[in-house]
Amino acid sequence: MTNPLDLNSENKSGNRIEGGIDAVVIGAGADGLAASAYLGKAGLRTVLVGAGPELGGRIAAREIAPGVTGIDGEHLITVLDPDVISELDLYRYGVEFAARRLDTTYFFENGGVLRFDGDLTQAALLNLDDDSDREALEAFMGDVLETAAFLRPAFHGGGYGGAASSQQRALEKAVNQAPPEMAARLQRYLFATADEVLRARFDDGQLRTLLLAETSFRSAAAPHEPFSFMSLLRRYAGEAAGLQGAAAYPKGGAVSVIDALRRAAQGAKVDMRAGAPVKSILIEGDRVAGVVMADGGQLRAPIVIAAIDAAHAFGEMIGPGVLDIGLQRVLTARKAEIASARMQIILKGVAQDEATRKNMMRRLVYAPSPEALSKAFMDARAGHVPERVMVEAIFPTALDEGAALDKRQVMSVMAHPLPFDEAPDDDRREAIRSAILDSIEMFAAGFSGRIEVEDLRLVNDDAAAAGASVAAYAAKPDVLQQWALASAVTGSPRIRGFYFCGPEAQIGAGLSCAAGRTAAKAALRVYKKGAE
Amino acid sequence: MIFPAEDFFTDAPRPTPLFSAVASESEANLWTTINGWTAARVYSSVSNEYETAKSGAALADLGPLARYAVRGAEAAEFLGRLTTAPAVNLHVGESARGLMLNDAGYVIDLAEVSRLSDDLFLLTLPAPHARHIALASRGMAVEANDISGDVAALGIFGPQTAGVLSAAGLKSVNETTAASGVLRGVETAARPIQFGAMPGVELIFPKEEALTIWERIIRRGAGAPIGLDALEVLRLEAGAPRPGLDFTPAGRSGASPRTPEELGLAHLAPLDRGWFNGRRALLEKAGKPRRRLRAFAIDAEQASPGAAVYGDGKPQGRVTSCAWSPARKRVIALADMDGSSTGNIYEISSSDPAAPRLPAARLETVESSLAKAFADEQGYTQGLATDFRR
């Protein structure tokens, strides 16, 4: 029997009720770290609790072979919220870009190759033979970047206004207040399929093919489906290293952003606790009152921010008994069908020719034909692994001097679309591996012979590492559906003091931190109002 | 419990379990459809049936209403979430009225909850809401089964209700406590119900026994069947809104949703009762009704739904339902009024444009009295008071 007076006994944390805390942030991923840093910086006594043994969530460094460290989660930065960088001073806390504005080389099924400048406004610099295509592309990119910039606030996610449809209302307001030419364009872009828009703008098949690939990359919406063009606007609304629509590689990989966020939170005096799983969120009346830890202890606080997936936050920690039924409908309506996969490959040898060396400093994309892409989506939806998939590849060892290896290269690959699988068996993993390697062979013939080690990472691996539900890491549906979901999870709970910034609150894929920032800002507004 | 509006476009109405029995009593042979079930509008005459309810015992086939048996360890919590009825506080045998609200705090439907045992409840709704109920039950230890077509339901209203029940052999049943037992060899549940604000008892028994039970009650008692048209008069006298007629349930196409307060039913969704679906949204809307459903007595022999209601010479609302009340000797109406309209004396437009407007006055009904008492009580703490004195 344990002695209740013995403070060293296991019983002590179970009985402990900690007070004097202003805010608890659940989830130590990028959004949780960002949210806690904002709260701590504003002077709130903040505790960040993460279930895993380490802080950082799914983006983490891991040894993929003896002496070689790979980065799980994201391999490029495309949509990191610039406000988070400046407000949390992330450059001071260690974020540094090894490569900004990565050029992209697109490879096509027929052997064709096109290069895009990393600065999309300079798209005309690419190696197109036909001047009319170049002009059409320049005009198109101008339109798209302007529209994407206009819609950027709507892509930040998070309603927090109390109403489930606040995102839609914000969008309606934006459309209504837009200049006539922009409003007409918005109307067209909002509802159109990517295929329709691109067919109307380009005669060139390759331009259409590469833009369709960019549109549907990491999205569950196929390019021929309604609202799919919004995915491209979402992609180009993001910013990396100060440039809209660009892709950048940070020194040390994406995990360096996590490290900087952690240092920012430390600097803001956030009490960070890893290996501290939360059992439930305390609701008293209509207010949040803190959290109950898995060991039975309690952290009492008037603000709780959940930076974990919605199934855990709402279904398990809050429980259906005090949730609005409509929110439950939204959470259970979507069935995940499509996912992306990461593969990190160690290649023997070094590049022999100049062209290859240059390409290794770029982002390489294999863009299947529109027909093959549609078929890939259909196959993946039906639960089959497509024969060919889109591939985005970079060489961290070439981009980042600090990551360079002796006579070896690391190639980091993101592949899409693949069937979503909660628990893939060995056969499924092998099929995915083959599809990815075959697709890379399409633009790098003979590359398979140089493979020393390959490390396949599927969504269930990421979910297991972060202690999240697998569905949270499935590819996101079209942007309109994401808006509805984000509005529901951030606006509908209406539990005072509770804010949500898990993956469902983010519009689109990628490391953004915008949801964490929005949740923290909303909490601070209410906190300051209450303090006045 | 109130019937929803009739549905005129049902292709093939289904007979209720009591249909064969009640059809044999129908002299008028005037039928309609509710929720896809056949329902009698009139059996003999509206005035006779109305009189029976007022002085004897009226028997209503309640088969068209939707019924769910809700069973499980969390049945009370589930019903407390799904409806505003205080299911958790009900003792075995007790019933309570409530509302089903959507997340935004708007009324989806009326509801009535009866506790039959510790973990078994009967949920009665004007219309089926299977999907909403299934969604609400996810993640909770509860099972909700639609038993609408499997049981016969007979409502008994009027001062001689207890006499009819006693004559039928259900001596343990009274108008305040639900009970289940064996009525002449047939498993029967009885529970107190309210039609509008008029108390009564509902007998529920297996559909196979519908004719037997009906025969026994008719043979022994002074009861006579009552149709929808007479029930409509009783409803309007009680001031109870009818879904689909006085308000469009939230979620239906073209619905202009209403909060409980806007329907004069704030007393069915008290904000200090604990959590129910839509409560948090309702907190933000409390005390700010955009519209108000009000009861009027119109000094005329007839009026029409849709007629404009004028206050201070300006249109302020529209009649949603009305009927001649033999007790009041006037037309009783419910009207959807502007939220800021606070007068007592109004005028109603006549169906003949050349005729003068009809004088009308606010009417205090059982439902509005409940709302007033509730508002008086809440007024001190929540500022929800509705001013009935003007």
Please supply descriptive tags for the structure shown above.
A: alpha/beta, FAD/NAD(P)-binding domain, 19 helices, B: alpha+beta, Alpha-Beta Plaits, 3 domains, six-stranded mixed beta sheet, six-stranded antiparallel barrel, 19 strands, 22% helix
Structure description:
- The complex is a heterodimer of chains A (532) and B (390).
- Chain A starts with 10 loop residues before the first helix and ends with a helix.
- Chain A is 39% helix and 20% strand.
- Chain A has a seven-stranded mixed sheet, sandwiched between helices. In chain A, strands 12-3-2-16-22 form a five-stranded parallel sheet, with helices on one face. A four-stranded mixed sheet of chain A has the order 1-15-14-13.
- The longest helix of chain A has 21 residues, at 131-151.
- Chain A is globular, with a radius of gyration of 23 Å.
- In chain A, 52% of the residues are buried.
- Chain A has a domain at 18-57 and 257-332 and 475-531: FAD/NAD(P)-binding domain, CATH 3.50.50.60.
- In chain A, helix 7 (194-201) runs antiparallel to helix 8 (205-216) and helix 12 runs antiparallel to helix 18.
- Chain A is built from 19 helices and 22 strands.
- In chain A, a hairpin with a 4-residue loop joins strand 7 and strand 8 (113-116).
- Chain A has 532 residues and is α/β, with parallel strands linked by helices.
- Chain B is α+β, with helices and mostly antiparallel strands.
- Chain B has three domains: 19-65 and 148-238, Probable tRNA modification gtpase trme, domain 1 (Gyrase A, domain 2); 67-146, Aminomethyltransferase beta-barrel domains (Alpha-Beta Plaits); 290-382, Aminomethyltransferase beta-barrel domains (Elongation Factor Tu (Ef-tu), domain 3).
- In chain B, 22% of the residues lie in helices and 32% in strands.
- Chain B has helices at 19-25, 46-55, 75-82, 130-137, 161-168, 210-220, 228-238, 279-285, 366-382, and strands at residues 30-34, 37-42, 58-61, 66-71, 95-101, 107-117, 120-125, 143-146, 151-157, 179-183, 186-195, 198-206, 224-225, 291-298, 308-311, 314-325, 330-338, 345-348, 358-362.
- In chain B, helix 2 (46-55) packs across helix 7.
- The longest helix of chain B has 17 residues, at 366-382.
- Chain B is globular and about 65 Å long.
